[in-house]
Amino acid sequence: MAPEAELLLNIGAEGGSISVYGSLSSDAASRFRVLMIDHTPTFLEFDEGGPPSRSDSGWLTSWADAMTAIARWPWPNLVPLFVHERVAREVWDSVEDYRANSRREIRASSLERWRRACGA
Fold first, then answer.
1. Phi and psi dihedrals of 64, rounded to 5?
2. Strand pairing of 5-13 and 79-83?
3. Which domain holds residue 110?
4. Which pLDDT belongs to residue 3?
5. Count of domains observed in the chain
6. Are 78 and 9 in contact (CB under 8 A)?
7. What string of DSSP letters covers the chain?
8. CB atoms within 10 A of CB 118
9. Is the CB of residue 80 less than 8 Å from the CB of residue 117?
């Protein structure tokens, strides 16, 4: 990870997390990277388990690409652990977009957590 990358969004799930990092310029983040860590395999018995699963999107050129990268998980139903104030509006807009376009519903309690985390 480049030293100028900053944590923009951290989403917690039982056994893991999804993090979005960005390289912030003076007015907006110009590139993004999505990292996913799943510790679930470490909770299994020795013969069934294994090391944590990790996924790295590599550098992406837009916020939309970062949101597409996390869309494989039902992230709005997970727990917002950190939302950087410089992307709070974009995160909330992404929650609203997910809500409008996904076949998966967002639980009311989850929506309220995101609303608070984003200051919406």
1. -60, -40
2. antiparallel
3. 5-118
4. 46
5. 1
6. no
7. --TTEEEEEEEEETTEEEEEEEEE-SSSEEEEEEEEEE-HHHHS-TTT--SPEEEE---BSSHHHHHHHHTTTTGGGSEEEEE-TTTHHHHHHHHHHHHHH-SSPPPHHHHHHHHHHHT-
8. 21
9. yes
CA dihedral 111→116→117→119, nearest 10 degrees, is: 120
Question: What is the per-residue pLDDT for 8?
Answer: 96
- Packing angle between helix 108-118 and helix 88-101, nearest 10 degrees? 160
Q: What is the pLDDT of residue 2?
A: 46
- Residues contacting residue 108 through CB under 8 Å, at least 6 positions apart: none
Positions in the chain whose pLDDT score sits under 50:
1-3, 29, 41
